[in-house]
Design goal:
- Two copies of one chain form a homodimer.
- By secondary structure, chain A is an alpha/beta fold.
- The first copy, chain A, has three domains: about 150 residues, FAD/NAD(P)-binding domain, CATH 3.50.50.60; about 130 residues, FAD/NAD(P)-binding domain, CATH 3.50.50.60; about 120 residues, 3-Layer(bba) Sandwich (FAD/NAD(P)-binding domain), CATH 3.50.50.60.
- Helix content of chain A is about 25%, strand content about 25%.
- The first copy, chain A, has twelve helices and 25 strands.
- A five-stranded parallel sheet of chain A has the order 3-2-1-7-18. In chain A, strands 9-16-10-11-12 form a five-stranded parallel sheet, with helices on one face.
- In chain A, helix 1 packs parallel to helix 8 and helix 11 crosses helix 12.
- The longest helix of chain A has 17 residues.
- Bound molecules: flavin-adenine dinucleotide (FAD) (2 copies).
- One flavin-adenine dinucleotide (FAD) binds next to helix 1, strand 2, helix 2, strand 4 and helix 8 of chain B.
């Protein structure tokens, strides 16, 4: 049996390794268009900031290490340009040589990931304009900052990547301005009411956040970025621009091969991560996945989902099994996200109010402020918790937590509770969250929020 | 309706306040033998260490504040010496006056708590020998340390209170020696394999831990403690001794009134916190409670359990309702405990291996070491996770987590998972724990432990 894995950053290597583990007799071949596999993409902002310890080149495994340790064949600088699933055939381009060849496989796993969304404004291809998606992006940005006379960087997009990049700029001693239509960071994950501590920390760091959109990137005679023009007609002078306005699944290869996409624009898969084509599975940032609470399909391009879907895809690709015959199943994601920037942890789990509403729930949101430790314990910090519950049954739908400490892990507690359908009453009364003066106040902030929700529901 | 609440430290005030909230027309009277109500008992070690911020006298509410804010009658220095439930009668002793009187009530809530266990060795009543249970204890110990020429303190018992006290001594610049039969701290909560980081931190702080038991406390001519003699025949010179060998429920009043005790020696209650006597409820450290996983009755003298059982007792006492008629129900505890001492967080949730075995499970324990953040992220620390699962179904029974950061909240994640019956497979594959370089590694240590358990189960 020959299995082809297409894409080698995170999901691809995980799938290839798992396939080989499950079927040592199979021949597993991985193709990656870029020169690198197994890149620690999530560390890139810290790499750019020069904050990482040890071997800081973000390469978790070289192609040779990946091949040797996992027993798979790895081809970097090889782009798959065509997939004929019925015929079991791939066309591969060795990009360094501009040469193509055909290869035959029995099964295919698509892990082509996502690309950074572009702005679609004039000047976007100027020197000094970057996205942050691949190792080449990260190295390019870092080199630019090290070699050009950069003083001010415009970061377009206030999502978690934009926020991390802005912090990286400040770590490098540069001025940074974030442009985000909402005029604040993490607007998709955090309600404005709960974001105060983060907003103030960003502001205190000297990073400006402006409710503007770039309409043009202006360059000097040398082709280098000089300024960004915004939809308010402002011109913001800068020597670098980082575009961090989200990602879109890289589906061209799949589409051309007849793979069906879902409503989100990502590849549609069943619970075995199988596409509509019999011998094609997909995983990672290129697929859409069911959301645990309501089963809706969402595009959730984060690493843990990629890793898990990769394993499911690989196991099923190897066995070609379905649920009824014991195939491995991906049950879905409980969306959760966390960042630490400018000394503040911000985390969200499950639905926001808007998402809950869109999903047909009648959400109730409550927000409380408490302390991270017993109030009199030194180092105790304010913590803001926003809890979103379903008015009908009091089920916990989501939560947002912001504090200088002990916030992100609390979102993990919510993930577990949401996953198992816990209600506000369960959390308020039944879940024994720890009390210890240096670690948590007498009544955990999550429980206080749940009690507040109960009070409002009654 | 007149309701008497007996005991005013933590559970008592919570019960009294809740009773008044539920039945504003009722007369709620609280009796407390000591001069204080609403004491922050868990902060006492830090109070003794002089580490607390602000008003550091541990009094959360004065009797007057408690009375005024909650609308209840509060009598401090009033000990209830006799309870005749059938006749609806209490005998109360005003300890300052050595005077007793009788009072009539319709319903009674016992919140008489627990007392520190004593050693039962000669010399225990010497000056300079303390337990740490009441505010008077804490003040007495602190004054002793401030006014006597203390250099070395022997702490008997290496549980979480003993550990916190030893840290307090070191914070005061004193030498401390912990005596514990197991020769290590938190021996009941942590398996020796997982405790390494904590053991090393205790050792590095200069606190000695000795596998010895005191057999006698030696005093000088002035009646002050001079040394502790141990079961190994050693004599350890010291100028103070703190006995922290656990607590026992204070059940005399209840027993004399005909209240049934459970196997643990604490008061037996039903799920409404009602005792065998029709008009008597009980809550807090004086009752035993069902453990969530197996329903076994345990004595679990921690503050969150006290608060919750207090509310259930109060609501049912007010309404005298039972489950079938909609009474509030206490479902049980998922035992969980956490400490931070000497820079290390140590936490445990659910069963230890021994407890699981005793409860009739066939436990499998796995232990992994990982990092608290991405390995290359500055500040990343080792984290040790021990996971205990049921061999039969892979159900998560318990876990122990030790690290310099991000440990305690992870125990809360386990609490939620245990509470809802999650299996190792669920945790390894289905629970979306956050990944973000400064906050957590790519695969959460809990998930790595769960995968290790799956591997061993297969
Ligand atoms: C700056 C940044 C920070 C992040 N931080 C976090 C975080 O904190 N937590 C978190 O959970 N997630 C984070 N993520 C997201 C995480 O990195 C992604 O979920 C993960 O990289 C997805 O892996 P993937 O392999 O599915 O897709 P990609 O990473 O997109 O990899 C796809 C690979 O396929 C290759 N490819 C595509 N088409 C072809 C073809 N036709 N032939 C050959 N090769 C092809 C591409 O070159 C690419 O290398 C972050 C991402 C970025 C960019
Ligand atoms: C040093 C220390 C640290 C702790 N740390 C933690 C921690 O980090 N986390 C945690 O969850 N828990 C902790 N605890 C435990 C927590 O403090 C207890 O669970 C809580 O105090 C129990 O409250 P209670 O009201 O049930 O009992 P108690 O605190 O024992 O109070 C009972 C009260 O009843 C009074 N009383 C008894 N009999 C009579 C009578 N006949 N008449 C009138 N009054 C009477 C007593 O004087 C006493 O004040 C700690 C405890 C100590 C001592």
């Amino acid at each position: 049996m020959r299995i082809a894995v297409i894409g080698g950053l995170a999901a691809g290597p995980a799938a290839a390794a798992e396939a080989k583990r499950e079927a040592p007799e199979a021949e597993v071949v991985l193709y990656e268009a870029s020169p690198h596999v197994s890149v620690g993409a999530c560390e890139m902002p810290y790499f750019v900031a020069d904050r990482l310890d040890g071997k800081p080149d973000l390469i978790v495994l070289t192609p040779e290490e990946l091949a040797r340790s996992r027993g798979i064949d790895v081809f970097v600088r090889h782009r798959v340009t065509h997939l004929d699933a019925r015929a079991g055939r791939l066309t591969v381009e060795a990009t360094a040589y501009n040469a193509t060849r055909e290869e035959r496989f029995d099964r295919f796993i698509l892990a082509t990931g996502a690309r950074a969304r572009s702005l679609g404004v004039p000047g976007e291809s100027a020197s000094g304009v970057f996205t942050l998606r691949s190792l080449l992006d990260a190295r390019g940005l870092k080199r630019w900052l090290e070699t050009e006379p950069v003083r001010h960087v415009v970061v377009v997009g206030g999502g978690y990547v934009g926020l991390e990049v802005a912090e990286a700029m400040r770590d490098r001693g540069l001025r940074a301005t974030i442009l985000d239509p909402k005029g604040r960071v993490l607007a998709k994950s955090l309600a404005p009411e709960v974001a105060g501590q983060l907003d103030r920390a960003v502001h205190a760091s000297g990073v400006a956040v402006r409710a503007e959109k770039p309409t043009e990137i202006l360059t000097g005679n040398d082709g280098r970025v000089e300024a960004v023009r915004t939809d308010r007609g402002e011109i913001i002078g800068c020597q670098a621009v980082v575009v961090a306005v989200g990602v879109e699944p890289r589906t061209e290869l799949a589409e051309a091969a007849g793979v069906t996409l879902g409503k989100t624009g990502a590849i549609a898969v069943d619970e075995h991560m199988r596409t509509n084509l019999r011998n094609v599975w997909a995983c990672g940032d290129v697929v859409e996945v069911p959301r645990i609470i309501d089963g809706a399909k969402i595009h959730w391009p984060l690493a843990p989902t990629g890793r898990r879907t990769a394993r499911v895809a690989a196991r099923n690709a190897v066995s070609a099994r379905t649920r009824t015959s014991g195939g491995d199943v991906f049950r879905g994601v409980t969306p959760s996200v966390a960042v630490k920037a400018f000394g503040i942890e911000a985390a969200a789990a499950g639905f926001s109010e808007e998402q809950a509403q869109e999903a047909g729930f009648e959400p109730l949101a409550v927000q409380i402020r408490h302390t991270t430790r017993t109030k009199v314990f030194p180092g105790s910090k304010p913590i803001d918790v926003r809890l979103i519950v379903d008015r009908a049954r009091g089920r916990i739908l989501g939560g947002q937590i912001v504090a200088a400490e002990y916030a992100a892990q609390r979102a993990n507690v919510l993930v577990a509770l949401i996953r198992y359908g816990a209600t506000a009453r369960d959390l308020a009364e039944d879940v024994d969250l720890i009390y210890n003066p240096p670690l948590a106040p007498a009544v955990d902030p999550l429980k206080i929020a749940a009690s507040a929700a109960l009070g409002k529901l009654a």
